[in-house]
Write a structure and sequence with these properties.
Helices cover 44% and strands 0% of the residues. By secondary structure, it is mainly α. The longest helix has 15 residues.
């Protein structure tokens, strides 16, 4: 998966405009961000990368870039 595909998938699942997210986007600043948003992202990461994140991981994941680093550069094309 390409990084841009991840951004689009997250935007779609969180009902955001496509292209509205980038690596500097702060997750907690996303309009409508709540605990369900965390679950949505956890599911996206698990289904697309086979990586299980916990809610505790989001204490250190502030931006999309932080999420990418948690997933690992080797998992992106």
């Amino acid at each position: 998966m390409k990084k841009q595909e991840l951004y689009s998938l997250i935007a779609d699942e969180l009902n955001l405009e496509d292209g509205s997210l980038n690596e500097t986007s702060v997750l907690f600043d996303i309009q409508g961000w709540d605990s369900m948003s965390i679950l949505v992202i956890m599911t996206i990461v698990d289904e697309n990368f086979g990586i299980t994140l916990s809610a505790d991981d989001f204490t250190t994941i502030d931006t999309i870039k932080d999420l990418e680093e948690k997933i690992g550069a080797e998992n992106f094309k």
